[in-house]
Structure formats: C-alpha cells, structure tokens
Amino acid sequence: MTRVLPAETARRVLLVEDDPGDAFLVQELLFEVDPEVDLTIAGSLAEVLERELWAAADCILLDLNTPGTTGGLDSLRQLLRADPSAAVCVLTGLDDEHLGIAAVGIGAQDYLVKGKADGAVLIRAIRYAIERRRAEAGLVRLREEQLAAAESVRLERGLMPTPLLAGSGVAARTFYRSGRTRSVIGGDFFDAVRDPRGRVHAIVGDVCGHGPDEAALGALLRVSWRALVLAGVDESQVLPNLQEVLVSERHDARLFTTVCTVAIAPNGSDSSDGSDGAGGALVRLAGHPPPVLLGPPPRTGPPPVGLPLGIDSAATWQAAEMSLDAGWSLLLYTDGLIEGRGPVPDEPLWEEGLLRLLETHAATPLDELPGRLVELAEGFNGGPLADDVAILLLSGERLS
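Request: output the structure for the sequence above.
Response:
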C-alpha cells in the first residue's frame, strides 16, 4: 500500500508506545498545543503492521523499545520495510539518545528524547518530519519523471530516420519539430532511401491528431514504408500496402494519414515502366501538399491529389512525372509549415505564401533553408507553430 502524503497541515498521528503512562503524557502534550490532532495509539509494532495502521497516519511517533522487536533500531527497520515513505519520529530514553541519531541515519525524519520534549516541540517535530518527507517524495518523483523523459527522448530519437542515400548522387537536408510539448516526435514523418535498383524514394506524411498514439503510428508507417521500398516492392504498390498497415494498426477507425511520395530515377537510366526517365521523378499525393521544385522560380506543378490513406480501401493514387534538371532541388514538407498565420492578417501562409518565401530567399544555402523557412513561418505566426513540422529537402547536385 502506498501512502498519500497530506496536502495540508498534518493532523493524523500514530503513536507506537507500550507504556500507558508515556502514551498518556504524549497525548496530553499534543492536545494542549493542537486539540484537533487525530491521535491513534498502538501498544506494539506487531499491531501496527498487522492492522496497517501506518497507512492512515501522516506521521508516526515510534518508541524504539516496543514489544515484539529486538530493541535498538529493529522496530524502525521493520516499519520502513512496510512503508518506505513513512514520516517517522523516534522516541528514545535519556540513555539512548545515540540511537536517535542512528535512527535518522537509516530513514527516520527526527528523534525526540522522552521527558525533554513539550507539546510545542512535539508538534513542530511532527510537522517538520512530514514536510521533509514530502520534499523527499517530490524529489524522487521529479527524478523519476526526468528519467522517464530522458528514456522517452532516447527512444524517440531512435525512431527518427537517417536517410539511406549513399551512392545515389542525391543529398538530403531535413528538419523536424514536434508540436507536442516536451516531445521529440509527433505524427508527422519523413524518410528517404535508395532501393536495390538505385532509384531514390522519399516520403513525407502526417497522421491526423497530435497525441503519443499518433506519433507511434507515424513512426510505424515510416518504418513500414522503408521496409517496402528496400524489399523492392513495385513503386505503384507501396501506397496500397502502406494503407493496409495503417488500417490494421490504427487505434481509431477515423484516423487517416496524408502522404507525398517521390521516386527519382537513377542518373542516366529509366524506370521499369519507362515513365520517369533520366533526371525524372514520379510523384504521388494522398491528400498531401505537393512538393516544391525550387527553380528558379519555385513551382509545384501539382499532380492529381488522391484521398488520404485510411479513407477508402479501394482508393488509388495516380502518379505524375516531374522533370528534374541538373542541379535540381525538391522540397517536401507537411502542412504544419503552412497552416500557421502568414504575412496577410488572419490568413494562413498556405502554399502560395511558401512559394513567395522561397523566391524571396532563393539565395539561402540549402543546408540552412529548412530551418530558415520554419523561422520565417514562426515570425509570421507570432510564436511557435502549433502543429508538427517535417521538411525533407532533396537535391541532385552531383547529377549531370
């Protein structure tokens, strides 16, 4: 049983004392100072443990020489084993004051010498004991929360992707910020990998909702997408397979996910279906904003937008070809970037505002561009963006 520490001034005191005269004296001293004290008297530690009297007490006054123990500190050790969070003040005789000091060393909050403590001293010792125990419990809870938060951060960082693009001639810059307080990842996700045939695949997605369940689902969808691509699943079948994963794993049948996928042909080769030749890309949209080709000028050339994943089991997602010239750069992002306030009062930034930003800041180095875009969007918004933001910036700097 776990003790709930009192929120207000303690009034429930348990006295463990086998001498009726000493018990009566303690009772009179307490009532003289605070008549509202709720005092329970137990004649032995065995009674306290058997009836779990400690659970209903804010503070325990414990005579170290109660019956049923071997004397010394044995009674205190037994009591603290039953309730490690107990606020205990031990009572000692004049000849046993050294035991009181030792008792504090093993977990008592204070010690009092019989015959030397009046009512005011007793009440003060009781209240101090409870406050110290409350402070200790608060520190323990804080430490536990810090450890749990650190573990959560390590876990979440482990779920963040590292693009697998070695040997592809494609470079990736990323930005990610969760809209949830004190969280590393949210429901948005991104990834980029090179498949066994040398084609580069990229994805950005957004699970509707902002809780930890949506964050976990987003991480699962990203990992599943990567597995499908690396397994060599045909590009046209990736989104249908991903929708099956979503439907089987979501905790709420109303959850849906928007997605943008891009498949970039290896330099100087054609895809198996011949639709995205050298320097070309296939783009598929499932209810998601289209990618931006940085230009100049920046442009989207949006392909047909299909339904988000999880809406219709029979949905299909038509691919559109996007031409990639030498030195191309392609920006994929989630709607958290554009749904905050823009430069026009009471209007979100939207895609049009993003294109204007990209044109205005065309000289920004690619390595700095994702963070700069978020900084500008937050400036318009007047503070942090409320939604998750995921940005994946791909470039073919080494393609001819």
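Confidence is low (pLDDT under 50) at residues 268-278.
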